[in-house]
Amino acid sequence: xxxxxxxxxxxxxxxxxxxxxxxxxxxxxxxxxxxxxxxxxxxxxxxxxxxxxxxxxxxxxxxxxxxxxxxxxxxxxxxxxxxxxxxxxxxxxxxxxxxxxxxxxxxxxxxxxxxxxxxxxxxxxxxxxxxxxxxxxxxxxxxxxxxxxxxxxxxxxxxxxxxxxxxxxxxxxxxxxxxxxxxxxxxxxxxxxxxxxxxxxxxxxxxxxxxxxxxxxxxxxxxxxxxxxxxxxxxxxxxxxxxxxxxxxxxxxxxxxxxxxxxxxxxxxxxxxxxxxxxxxxxxxxxxxxxxxxxxxxxxxxxxxxxxxxxxxxxxxxxxxxxxxxxxxxxxxxxxxxxxxxxxxxxxxxxxxxxxxxxxxxxxxxxxxxxxxxxxxxxxxxxxxxxxxxxxxxxxxxxxxxxxxxxxxxxxxxxxxxxxxxxxxxxxxxxxxxxxxxxxxxxxxxxxxxxxxxxxxxxxxxxxxxxxxxxxxxxxxxxxxxxxxxxxxxxxxxxxxxxxxxxxxxxxxxxxxxxxxxxxxxxxxxxxxxxxxxxxxxxxxxxxxxxxxxxxxx
Length: 554
Prior knowledge:
Blueprint: H1 35-38, E1 65-66, E2 84-85, H2 94-101, H3 104-122, H4 142-157, H5 176-181, H6 184-193, H7 217-230, E3 231-232, E4 236-245, E5 254-255, E6 263-272, E7 278-283, H8 297-307, E8 317-320, H9 327-335, E9 339-343, E10 369-373, E11 376-382, E12 386-391, E13 398-404, E14 412-418, H10 419-427, H11 430-440, H12 450-473, H13 481-497, E15 523-527, E16 533-535, E17 542-544, E18 549-552
Parallel strand pairs: 4-8, 8-9
Antiparallel strand pairs: 1-10, 2-3, 4-6, 5-6, 6-7, 9-12, 10-11, 11-12, 13-14, 15-18, 16-17
């Protein structure tokens, strides 16, 4: 007597005491063990004429019925808001759009907290040597912080391997503009002391009121509402997660092996589908600080948490992947006059068990199978791979599509694609579009502090949103994303460039020329580097290893 072998369950190992969360974009991950079923020659071809033969077996999903008719979601209110920008600018310079999403108040706050942290650090018990760069610290200003941020924006446009390379002299790819704003040592000193909170107000972990994001919370609180206050989106929105690269030590770091960025900080994001405009975001800090209702699940908490301030009861349609989708959250969103559509794992609670691969065998080219419960539509479709959809705004319609097929005489084959899949593919990419725009010219250098990674995310989000608003407000402009960022960076650095106390660099000296006369009264600091000459063994040319530099005050 033969017994069916029980499939071995692969155990997932949790390392570093961190939350290991599977890739939520793997729409077909639930069917890896059943791929052979979908290609079985004995599989049942479930067409529209046989849908009536499907019956559910209970288990909390007995109300699902086969469906193959037209459906109009009369329950969903029509979206009536007019999409557009909520402010008007007289001066339409790119930096003005950036200031709408990264207020000048933020620069003032960063300058105050940076000065405060530097004083706390320097007054500590550490005894710095006389040559330590820390003892050269001088208080920063709002204008200098603007220039510091401007240089970081410019580094995303002019990418180099190391920060020191932007201040290198004598190279073909030299960038003299960086030296005209501030010295390399000053930039690195600001990098060390940049701060966004008062450490003395920190509540220790484990006590009531502890905030895992206390290092960056003041900046998030200031900037987060600005995106919603500046723009009204279209009807279609998408929810997904974005990862900020970080491999340092922080307890809410996430590992997602199937993502392009495997290690990092996860941010739940709500974006407009059409433009990729980021409307809201929440940094995920682990299960301990994000309690979940077992009946609703984490996906419901994320989606409703992102929508609850301004986007519920408006008639929006929200698209999501199978990490967030299940019948209960979709019913709850319907009560809030919000439509929902997404891929779904057929093993979710209250999903129709008749659509599971063990109960329903499909082959490539079979018609999609639909089941309905109230306003909820569940769809299973097999083309290249098996995929399941759940929606409360779509019907059981199909559209004939021509796709490439190398074994066909014409090179194409016709498929019956469900409309729910067409709508999902057209509207789900909002967060991916935002990620793509962020990655094009993002700050290219590694950060060692977790709150720096979130700060760069906030800066990139403001730049991407500002460029989208600039394009909407100036539809005939030919300014690209890189040029837009150059103009923003130049405007942020302009105050130091026009400052009479800005650092200047003398021209490179020829070793055979006489040294130019310097007005000692106008020289702030002079470094005379009279190192020995170096002879090139190939050309026998004699060159000077170092150049005479001076920081001059006019």
